[in-house]
Automatic annotation (TrEMBL):
Region (Disordered): 289-316
Lineage, opening ranks: Eukaryota, Fungi, Fungi incertae sedis, Zoopagomycota, Kickxellomycotina
GO CC annotation terms, alphabetical: nucleus
Coiled coil: none
Keyword tags: DNA damage, DNA repair, DNA-binding, Glycosidase, Hydrolase, Lyase, Multifunctional enzyme
Catalysed reaction equations from the record: Hydrolysis of DNA containing ring-opened 7-methylguanine residues, releasing 2,6-diamino-4-hydroxy-5-(N-methyl)formamidopyrimidine
Annotated family: Belongs to the FPG family.
SUPFAM superfamilies given in the database record: N-terminal domain of MutM-like DNA repair proteins (SSF81624), S13-like H2TH domain (SSF46946)
Superkingdom to which the source organism belongs: Eukaryota
Compositional bias annotation for Basic and acidic residues: 295-307
Name of the protein in its database record: Formamidopyrimidine-DNA glycosylase catalytic domain-containing protein
GO biological process: base-excision repair
């Protein structure tokens, strides 16, 4: 699933190709889900004739700033992608449904043309991504304003991070996936960070020591920054990353690291988590379910923070 590095790659690509150019033609699909309730005419009118004046990203949200105080805010969901006509598109992992080589690609939700020679397409086979036509600054929009720190743009200081982690009574994996805590962290990044920090995904955040929170922050910054440096190209990720070996769940042979250590799976916070039992030991065992669900890349992705459970007052 696209995570922070993929959003950064797309944002950089759009910035390089689009900034300073005028949108001369727009075609939006009639899809109220992807366009978050907006009709195609509204979206097309929002964009047509506007000049791209800048870009930005926070977490998995990225945007183009437009003339007239408008913005186009994009989120990939599980299978979203940005394409430039005539240029190859790369993924960290192939999606199950290919979009083809024709133009516009299959599953195109939005196509814009900037001048005579530049065409951009946003595709989303599963319709879990979102496109928002924003009036005003994208950073003030609810989708962006609610996000937590970005591990690449503004990582917290170690002391502040430790305090934020240690006051949470939730599994650390669920905390990392909470976009209001750490924006841009998805399933594979969280698993990679926890593996490299030697922390079990079900470990209660409040139980972590200062040494563990320090390692967690260091690895969070390292993994995200390194993935961004290599333009989200998975073949260029370091060979010792768990990422390369975690996808074998459900196959006949149990997945292992090159040194023979076994990779196991557990469900934490409703998400499949890959971990290495030899180095990620659960010191206090909260209730977690052995994982017999679908592989992680078949699970639905959400950026919403976990809902706070309702409590009922007992009548006297």
């Amino acid at each position: 699933m696209p995570e922070l590095p993929d959003a950064e790659r797309a944002c950089r690509l759009l910035h390089a190709r689009c900034v300073g150019r005028k949108i001369t033609w727009v075609q939006a699909a009639d899809d109220h889900i992807v366009f978050a309730g907006k009709g195609r005419a509204d979206v097309e009118g929002h964009l047509r004739g506007r000049t791209v004046v800048g870009s930005g990203r926070r977490g998995k949200q990225f945007w183009l700033a437009l003339s007239g105080g408008r913005a186009l805010l994009l989120h990939f969901g599980m299978t979203g992608e940005v394409h430039i006509r005539g240029e190859a598109t790369s993924h960290y992992r192939k999606i199950e449904v290919g979009v083809g080589d024709e133009w516009p690609p299959r599953y195109t939700k939005l196509e814009i043309r900037l001048g005579k020679d530049l065409a951009v397409s946003y595709t989303d086979p599963r319709r879990l991504g979102r496109i928002h036509a924003i009036e005003g600054d994208a950073t003030a929009s609810p989708q962006v304003a609610k996000l937590g720190f970005d591990p690449v743009l503004d990582p917290p200081e170690p002391e502040a991070f430790a305090q934020a982690v240690q006051r949470r009574r939730t599994p650390v994996k669920a905390l990392l996936l909470n976009q209001e805590f750490s924006a841009g962290v998805g399933n594979w990044i969280a698993d990679e960070v926890l593996f490299r920090s030697r922390i079990h995904p079900a470990q209660q955040a409040a139980s972590l020591s200062l040494a563990q929170t320090s390692a967690l922050l260091d690895q969070l910054k390292y993994v995200c920054t390194k993935a961004v440096e290599v333009d989200a190209e998975s073949a260029r990720f370091p060979k010792d990353w768990l990422f390369h070996y975690r996808w074998a769940k459900g196959k006949r042979a149990a997945p292992v690291l090159p040194d023979g250590r076994q990779i196991a799976f557990v469900t934490v916070g409703g998400r499949t988590s890959a971990y290495v039992p030899d180095v990620q030991i659960l010191s206090v065992a909260p209730k977690v379910a052995a994982d017999d669900s679908e592989p992680v890349d078949k699970a639905s992705e959400t950026d919403e923070a976990p809902a706070r459970p309702r409590t009922r007052k007992r009548r006297r």
